[in-house]
Amino acid sequence: MATTQWHETMHIDDLWDGDMAPVEVDGTKVLLVNVGGDVKAYLNRCPHQAWALDEGDLDGETLTCIRHMWTFDVTDGTGINPDDECLTTFGCEVGDDGVIRVDVG
Ligand code: FES
């Protein structure tokens, strides 16, 4: 069984509620999203044609890829349109020190 390897990214004070930010974690492009104070980490590549998702539009809980307008629910990474695709999800936690840590596996 793989062990969790947390990598420090940014501080929660720099990622406000309703905001998203691209970070690189151990060579992997990651998208951090603050959804109502809950931080999520996804692969920063659209499952359609790998466009950078941080260039898209985040409206509440819906992320729209700017390339061909696919939409995703950022609370869990599921696809809205189309609904048979989803974002790649990574483990993510906010430490007591406010640092967001991500495990890209
Ligand atoms: S690359 Fe994102 S919708 Fe096509």
CATH topology: Rieske Iron-sulfur Protein
Share of β-strand residues? over 45%
First and last CA, distance: 11 Å
Low-confidence stretches: none
The CATH superfamily turns out to be Rieske [2Fe-2S] iron-sulphur domain
Category by helix and strand content: mainly beta
CATH C-level class: Mainly Beta
Secondary-structure element sequence?
EEEEEEEEEE
Number of helices: 0
Strand order of the largest sheet: 1-10-9-4-3-2
Tell how many strands the DSSP assignment holds.
10
Number of domains: 1
Radius of gyration, taken over Cα atoms and rounded to an integer in Å: 13 Å
Helix content: under 10%
The coarse overall form would be: globular
CATH architectural arrangement: 3-layer Sandwich
- Overall average residue pLDDT: 97
Small ligands present = FE2/S2 (inorganic) cluster
Largest sheet: 6 strands, antiparallel
Give a description of the structure:
This protein has 105 residues and is mainly beta. It has a single domain, classed as Rieske [2Fe-2S] iron-sulphur domain (Rieske Iron-sulfur Protein, 3-layer Sandwich), CATH 2.102.10.10. 0% of the residues lie in helices and 46% in strands. The strands form two sheets. The chain has a six-stranded antiparallel beta sheet, with no helix packed on it. A hairpin with a 6-residue loop joins strand 6 and strand 7 (71-73). FE2/S2 (inorganic) cluster (FES) binds at residues 46, 48-49, 51, 65, 67-68, 70.
